């Protein structure tokens, strides 16, 4: 797991439950805006497991690092927080680091006790789709 993401996971796992929601809102507010060329979600994948409209795109750069792009409306702060956590935690991470992120990330953060199972399932689906997109871009490079 990338060091920054591991740090975020530890912060959440050790935070008192009443502080966790506040921390989630901070990540929701800090989510980077979508580049203008993706405003219409062109080339982005929708995550239907999320209750709200959520789009993502992972780009494996030539140096092997991953750029993660997310779009989620402000009126879905928990889902935006998942995106903000991944955006910050995976910034500059390699494809191998992204693929090594544990699937139970949100449980490790202690979020299962703070938010609804439906939200955790949506966050887990976001991570799974992100990892699948990275894997699809990495495997062809390794075969050649």
Automatic annotation (TrEMBL):
- Superkingdom as given in the UniProt entry: Bacteria
Species whose genome carries this gene: Actinoplanes philippinensis
Gene3D superfamilies, A to Z: 3.90.1010.10
> What's this protein's name?
Cysteine desulfuration protein SufE
Fe-S metabolism associated domain span: 12-133
Concerning its family, UniProt says: Belongs to the SufE family.
